[in-house]
Amino acid sequence: MACPVVATVLALGLAGFASGANILTIDGPDIGPYDISQVSEYLAQEWTQFSPYDNVAISAAILDAVDDTSTVTAYVTNAIGPSAGPANVIASVSLSPPNSGDALVPLFSGLYLPAGSYYLVLTGDDPNSDDTWFFTSSSNVSGPATTEEGLISPGVPGPAPFAEFVFSGDTISYGRMTVMGDPVPEPTTLALLSLAAGLLALARRKRGWQIVPMSGGVRRIM
Prior knowledge:
Strand content: 35-45%
Structural class: mainly beta
Shape: globular
Helix content: 10-25%
Order of helices and strands: HEEEEEEEEEEEEEEEEHEE
CATH topology: Jelly Rolls
CATH superfamily: Galactose-binding domain-like
């Protein structure tokens, strides 16, 4: 009788270990690229997640429309604007965007993000290039995380994450991106697994006697 109960408890507990879960997906038909290659012109997309995740991977739909070797720098931060500082930068990377298409480009992987609010900030490193971030409408947002319209920092000097940001002014404009990760088990999940282990041990004891070889004979134990 214990086996179905144990199976149920194990299923509930192991559900907390599901990998590659969708935290936030903003992906759908483009409503136009936003320029990130001008001097001091940066774009940011915020999201708030209500649980911690490990092995977080982030991608975004970026493009270099000019066939050159310009780079884009991406930042993941937990704050932006003049009140933020280097301590708020969780990760950063520079890469060369593709020269065609509008596919999602991998930016980060292996991040650990506790519950909280985060920002993906993108800026082109070459003002003479044509680096862009594709945006889509709010109807193409999914996942347990919440988000709002994209943020823009046009013509405001300062390092990208620490410039003054304002809402884009277009409530349908959201930067196309995905945030995927492995849920971190909560204490209740670990408690369920401990309970399942205890039930399994009890079930094994109730199956009957076991014969254990010993010197000078055998002994039956439960």
